[in-house]
Amino acid sequence: MASARTNDPESAGDGASDEAPDSLDRARIGEALVRDGVLTSDQLEFALRVQAKLRYHERLGRVIEQLQLVEPEVLRGAIHRLRRSLGVPEILVDLGLLSRRDLETACQLQSDQRGRTIEAILVDQRLIDEEALVTALAEKFGLPVFVPRMEEIDEKILQGHRLQELKRMKILPLRRKRDEPASIVVSDPRDTQVREFAEAVFGEDVQLQLAAASQIEPVLAAIEIAHRAASDPASGQSEIVDLLKDLIEKAQQEGASDIHIEPLANSVRVRFRIDGVLVRRFEFPRSVHSPLITRIKVLSEADIAERRRHQDGRMIMSSGDQELDIRVSFYVSIHGETVVLRVLSRRTGLLALTDLGFAPLMLRRYLEDVLESETGIVVFSGSTGSGKTTTLSSSVALLNDSSTKIITAEDPVEYQIDGVTQCQINSHIGVTYEETLRAIVRQDPDVIVLGEVRDGFSAGVAVQAALTGHKVFTTLHTEDSVGALLRLINMDVKPFFVASTVQGILAQRLVRRICERCSKPYSPGREEVRRSGLVPRDVRKFEFRRGAGCDHCSFTGYRGRTGFFELLTPNDSIRDQVMTNPTASTLREVAMRSTGFVSLREDGLAKAARGLTTLEEVYLHTPRTEKVRDIGMVFSILGY
Known about the structure:
Layout: H1 2-6, H2 24-35, H3 41-53, H4 60-66, H5 72-83, H6 88-94, H7 100-112, H8 118-124, H9 130-141, H10 160-169, E1 172-173, E2 183-186, H11 192-202, E3 207-210, H12 213-231, H13 233-253, E4 256-263, E5 267-274, E6 277-285, H14 289-300, E7 311-319, E8 322-333, E9 336-345, H15 360-371, E10 376-381, H16 388-399, E11 406-410, E12 421-424, H17 433-440, E13 447-450, H18 456-467, E14 471-476, H19 481-490, H20 495-501, E15 502-514, E16 519-521, H21 526-532, H22 536-541, E17 545-547, E18 558-568, H23 572-578, H24 584-594, H25 600-609, H26 615-621, H27 631-638
Parallel strand pairs: 2-3, 10-14, 10-15, 11-12, 11-13, 13-14
Antiparallel strand pairs: 1-2, 4-5, 4-9, 5-6, 7-8, 8-9, 15-18, 16-17
Helix pairs in contact: 2-5, 6-9, 12-13, 13-14, 20-23, 21-26, 23-24, 25-26, 25-27
């Protein structure tokens, strides 16, 4: 094979080097640049001195790049050439995908498991994942990494017995362009059986691309399902049942909150939302779309004949020892129906308020000044997916006891709380939001939960309920707590009523936490500091951290989520301002001066300074406000 011969896995050697991976920086990169004449000896010594003075260790290549001693393209080229002379484990270490300690552990295990490769042990012990191994192999052999896309795959080749052979070999054939050699996707270019089979089927002039076996196998399986469905509908349907089950189980294993099944022009894309971020997982043939959507409609009791209107549904499925409550949304697009499955585990239950990420003093203020009050409106503010419904439900659960009547109007009911009277809005049968709000106050409740204040009518009901001695919980889609206060006024609620009934407004965001297993200290760059609103002394006073990436966090550096919070508890000064048609900046200034108010950005920076999340998460997910206060002062206000 031409491509394989250019980067012949067998002739490239094992890369067994007596030199420790950590010495790659000076002994190879720096000296190679000097030897090639792109870096002088004085420049190398200068870079080494700078590296030695850094508070946290930084690889020499990165130091040279930041000092702008070498053009980035030249530097990257030198590093690529050097890595090709190394073994795959050494490349993993140099790329930061494997720690030296984990490599030593795998080497010890290999001595007891003769005949097994070090890479196989690394994957089996979950010290790396398959994607990391593919990255290292691509670096060593100079091959491109392929993300499977159905429009590039040649389904004509995948017919009959040939499909079974390709499944066994884990080979994806790509569409062949005129006058160009055939291209295939494999998981390991060193596999001689795969190479010999490819030469026999596609010819010696075949080009290689790389992808993880876990990415190749589902595509081949989906193509097989499509072929069976075309020739034998009954057999194909049973395969679709297994495919949907596998997707849900995979999402559950990865901690995904949502599964997005999206038809494209020539394929079906499947993405998972993990820790709030969409991650591409699979791509299937277009022919799988219709039977897969039909199966989901059957399970969620949606209309299988309706394909021109949006629909909603719900289904209960088992995954291992868990029962999953799955909310389904069908959305009609130009390429067909897009489906989003929101996966909720019934066993997980509600989180306690202490587990949501509140700072100590903010939590105390929230409990004492907001929740313990018997009347008033409590507003939970934030964008979609900010976690406000979870915080609201956890707050309701805390108040739920035998002496308190709690009644809700929700659309939909996301958390079922035993002992709480919950109503789900269903306009199809006349259970509308307006009708429910009129009936709810006649139920003699102590606490009323309105899923959302949508308009002047629902805002008026909330105010009247609070004025008559009820405690009201509700949500608003606004950027921050001050904006929520002004939004109520803009809903034609008189400022006097807003000032006298609002007991507290809690704005929040959900952000990714740094993975605890691969967390390490680092010095934020100048641009990060500027965008976050910090000053250099804040960077020097605190230890900022980030995730290096490991198998536990799928090499993202993040695992799990935490909240940023902004609590506004109106006092007399703020109520007086509300009566004067104030601006947001005026209200914020008064809140900072007269209460223990901390902005979303300040709370985020405090969590970043404590090593819980990164500065990037802070400036990407918090609104830009006035200049932030000294982080030491914020720590004091929050009780850290």
